[in-house]
Every structure is written in C-alpha cells, then in structure tokens.
Amino acid sequence: MSKIVTVVGVGALGSHFVQFLRSEDVAINVIDFDRVEQKNVQSQFHGKPNVGKLKVDSLKQSMQFLYGVRIKTVSNKLVGDNVDVLLQGDLIVDCLDNGASRKLVQDHVRAKGIPCLHGALAGDGSFGRVIWDESFVIDYESGPGAATCENGEFLPFIALTSAYLGIATQIFLAQGKKSSYSISPGGVIRI
Amino acid sequence: MDNVVQLIQENEARLNVTYGGQNGDLPDAVSIETTDGDIKTMATEAVAGGGIPGIPTDARADFGDFVVERYPPTEDRTHHLIQLRPKTEFGG
Q: Which residues contact residue A150 at a Cβ distance below 8 angstroms, ignoring those fewer than 6 apart?
C-alpha cells in the first residue's frame, strides 16, 4: 500500500515540491486555504488561468492534466481545532509561510511521532533550509513589510530548494534516512 | 575534506557562514562554547577582512538579525557544526 505524504502550504516551495512527488509511489494530500494571485504566477507552480482559484484546486488540476496524477485536497486553514484531523499521513512536509502555523505542525508531529520535513526560505532569496523536524528551529516573522521571496527573480532558487525537499523525501521513502540541507545560491551543504 | 575534519577537536566546531547568498567556512575551528554574540562578532570581522573563502569581503557586513544554529556530530559528520545563517521566515 502506498505511503501517504501530506503537504501543508502549496505556495512557492510547496507547489513546486508536489511536482517532484509524481514519480513516487505515494498518495498525495495537500492543504492550503489560500487563492492564486497574479503575483504568484512569477514564483509558484500556478498558471495564469488559475488566478483567483484555490491553490489546492489549481495544483490538483495541473497534476491531473499534465501528469495524470490525482491528489487529495483540503482548503481549510490549519488551526488548533482541526490539526488532528487534517495532519495525517506517513510523512508531513511543511512549506508554510508563518511561524504560528509551523508551530501547530511541529507540536502535532512531535506529539504523534509523525516524520516531518520542513522547507523554509529567506525573504531575500539568499538562503533555504530543508530540515527534518528533529533539528528544525522555527524562524518567526520579523514583522509587517518583511521580504517574502515572491519576486520572480527568485524562481530558480525556489525551485532548487524545492528539489532538495524532493531529494530528502526520496531518500526517506527509499531508505528511511533523514537528510537535511542548507542551500544558498553559492552552494549546498548537508547538515 | 577528511584532513579538515581531523583538525577539529571534540570541543570544537566548524563555523559555516551564509552571507549575501554565498556560503563558506571559517578556516579555523571555534570552541563549541562560543556564545551566539561572539559567533556573530567573529563572522563580522572575518567577512570584513576577507577571511572566509567563498564569501566576498564586505566591511559593512551585519549579522545582527542572523540565526546561530548548533548541530552535534552525526554518523556522516564527525564534528560539531555551528551555522550562522539568515532568517528563513518564508516558505509558502
């Protein structure tokens, strides 16, 4: 029976990462309450025709149309009351964009003993982390107006970091080994 | 690589710095007891003096908002690693 991979957040990192799951023998669940905005088209795996749609529906359509891969979607916002119901599976991949939601994920996976891989980016596109939960420290937002890495100029770096999420997932699914990475445009190191 | 690893003692760590999208190690190991503040001071001075291979010299380097993370040795990495890195608030 296929393992279940649940991806929380399908914006910049998450939308690209889900593509890399298409060659894995897994069932894919995605969770995101947000809708595709025009600006997202520059940096996320969401196309112009899907502007205004839920990101999970955009991704579901693209995965089915391009690759014939079906994914399960949830468009609820992750909150304390629903985390037990929504965050299930053999592997949770956190691609969220705020510390409070990441904390919900971290508390849940630690309480339930579910393997969890986190992806995170610096807002200026200079650094990315692909870290298993055992070593993951949440960086909370500096405040309003902080950089968001959404500009199209960061697309190659976003895709690179997403690819390392894919590599870490692939290694885990095949070998059960947890590999973490620090990524910058200047190079990648294993943590 | 192995030669570098062998020079790091049990109570020392490799200090890896990411700055301006570039990544490099301080040539010398640092004590694992070095405080976060001292790590930032060391990195500031090293980048200002061009002392980190791979990172261009920058006399105005500022690590005030950076994060110090400490990783114990693993099966694959036999020494402590201290990482000085930008905050990663975004993921989406």
A: A12, A39, A40, A42, A43, B92
Q: Report the C-alpha gap between A25 and B39 in whole angstroms.
A: 44
Do the beta carbons of residue A37 and residue A51 sit within 8 Å?
Answer: yes
Q: Which of A118, A139, A186 sits opposite B89 (nearest CB)?
A: A139
* B73 touches A at CB < 8 Å: no
What pTM does this model have? 0.93
CA distance B39 to A74: 43
Is A164 within 8 Å of A117 (Cβ atoms)?
A: no
pLDDT (tens digit per residue) in A26-61: 999 999 999 999 999 999 999 999 999 999 999 999
8 Å CB contact of A139 and B16: no
